[in-house]
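WARN retry 2 of 3 for item q-0093 after timeout on previous attempt; input resubmitted unchanged.
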Amino acid sequence: MPSALQQQDHWLNCPTRLSWLKLVLLSSSLAITACQSTTSQKIVTQKVATSATAQTASANQNTGNPATYRPLTVKVAGIPGLTDLRWDLVSINSKNPQPFINRPYLFLQSTAKAVSGSTGCNALSGKYESGDLKSLKIQALAGHMTCDDALAQEAEIMDVLGRVNRYQLQHNMLYLYDQNGGLLLTARASQ
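OK item q-0093 returned
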């Protein structure tokens, strides 16, 4: 009967099992690296194919030698000061928004170009597009829960978001305008 040390040595010397173990360790390390990347960058690896590694690639697959990898930096297209911040609504068409279940807010996520938030009663979600000259288009839908007296505010928020054409940032304030330059919504960056 082989000892535990001999079994472990046999397991590690098996090329298939060793390759599998290396793959698991590499996957784990990539997952940890991706989780530790900042919101403005993601880490991706690319297999380096040089003439020396290309010639030995088939030999490496049989012997279990690891391939050479190098990190690549991929920029995420966010808008500094606008995206990846919670914006608490301060005014909608010059009226103060009411918190019914929670405070109305917006959140523009740069990686997915998604908008989320709350109307004060229902959650809202959708997509946004931004371009040159601080243009901004928002397409969002709200949930279906009913709150006392919240329907009018929710309808107004959804109407306003659908008419947004451009934005302006000043300090910790966000101003959303329609295509004629009329102020639709004001929000403050949450602390």
